[in-house]
Amino acid sequence: MYKLKLSRPTLVSGLQHCAVGLVVCVCSLFSVSAYSQSATLAQVKERGAVKCGVNSNLKGFAQANSLGDYSGLDADFCRAVASAVFNDPTAVEFVPLSSSERFTAIASASVDVLARNTTWTMSRNVDYGEFVGVNYYDGQGFMVPKRSGIRSALELSNRPICVEKATTTELNAIDFFTVAKMRYKPVYFDNNDQVRTAYDNGDCVALTTDRSALAAERATLKQPDAHLVLPEVISKEPLGPMVPKGDTAWGNLVRWSLNCMINAEEMGISSVNIGQYANSTNPAEQRLLGTEGDFGPQLGVSLTWCANIISHIGNYAESYERNVGENTALGLKRGVNRLWTDGGLLYAPPIR
């Protein structure tokens, strides 16, 4: 494992004078991190693992093998948070959650992080928890058997469509058919596995969900090449991790774990070449890797929190290509998930 050579951090000390109206108060300016007040971080450290809610079986995002080891874009993010806290990507307790269970889990703080291909919406943000960013920009679509002859979603009027209940997928489909003035004929199921099985058995002529999930479902069908994802994108689906409400400091750590991976890609720093940057004189690279400033301690973790993430997990591009990219079973091009410098939507605030 790569280790950075670190200089001794400069501790902030002194006094700050604050004026409120005519009253002048003297306030201490401490080096104590805001993160020292995070109850969640304290619990995570005491437990020795980050409890991360994930999809139970979505190829490319979160899927367990026969040994119970998870892989996928969301699973990688869970390990990134563990790397930031413990410098150990294995310090994660994966909690498989259904679509209906996920919001109860995050609202009750039964999990520390929810990384479960969850669309950021206003009501979910208000009712259940805080979204800390977007790790995959998506949109809803439809998949059909090629033999059906259907080549557009506008040909789906009065055709049975497999849909998972209690999801934005259900609501988006209703909106789409209403606006298109077509008859909607849904066949509802409780989870992804039931939807996929019913569709594969021919119980429905189409399956609708996020297009990334369609690629994942297609890859697991008996004859993937016999199915077609239709061209229409009927919604915006910004998928991102959530944290429980009420602990801003914990939210900051999780948020900046994602920003670390995106910034690392923008700077060209990866798990393969990070060693070449140990003596970098570029200020932005120094801040990212912890050789300048005390940004890690501000979050309640080590100076090398971001370097640890890059070393163990890689930058965003590495995680994307490993799990859902063009050379995987999902075969997803970066598209809008490219960096902003490459015409995409990925844009992370700077560490400074």
Give the total of beta strands.
17
Question: Total domains, how many?
Answer: 2
- Give the termini distance in whole angstroms: 26 Å
Mean pLDDT score = 91
Q: Which sheet architecture does the biggest sheet show?
A: 5 strands, mixed
Oligomer classification: single chain
Strand content: 15-25%
* General form: globular
Q: Please identify, by name, the CATH architecture of the largest domain.
A: 3-Layer(aba) Sandwich
Instruction: From the alpha carbons, calculate the radius of gyration and give it in angstroms.
Output: 22 Å
Write the layout of secondary structure elements.
Layout: E1 15-20, E2 23-28, H1 39-47, E3 50-55, E4 57-58, E5 62-64, E6 70-71, H2 73-86, E7 92-97, H3 99-107, E8 113-114, H4 122-127, E9 130-131, E10 136-138, E11 140-145, E12 160-164, H5 168-179, E13 185-189, H6 192-200, E14 206-210, H7 211-220, E15 227-229, E16 237-239, E17 242-243, H8 248-267, H9 283-289, H10 295-299, H11 305-312, H12 316-323
Parallel strand pairs: 3-7, 3-8, 12-13, 12-14
Antiparallel strand pairs: 1-2, 4-5, 5-6, 9-17, 10-16, 11-14, 11-15
Describe the protein.
- The chain is α/β, with parallel strands linked by helices.
- The protein has 2 domains: 37-137 and 239-342, D-Maltodextrin-Binding Protein, domain 2, CATH 3.40.190; 140-235, Periplasmic binding protein-like II (D-Maltodextrin-Binding Protein, domain 2), CATH 3.40.190.
- It has helices at residues 39-47, 73-86, 99-107, 122-127, 168-179, 192-200, 211-220, 248-267, 283-289, 295-299, 305-312, 316-323, and strands at residues 15-20, 23-28, 50-55, 57-58, 62-64, 70-71, 92-97, 113-114, 130-131, 136-138, 140-145, 160-164, 185-189, 206-210, 227-229, 237-239, 242-243.
- The strands form 6 sheets. Strands 13-12-14-11-15 form a 5-stranded mixed beta sheet, sandwiched between helices.
- Helix 2 (73-86) packs across helix 8 (248-267) and helix 2 crosses helix 11 (305-312).
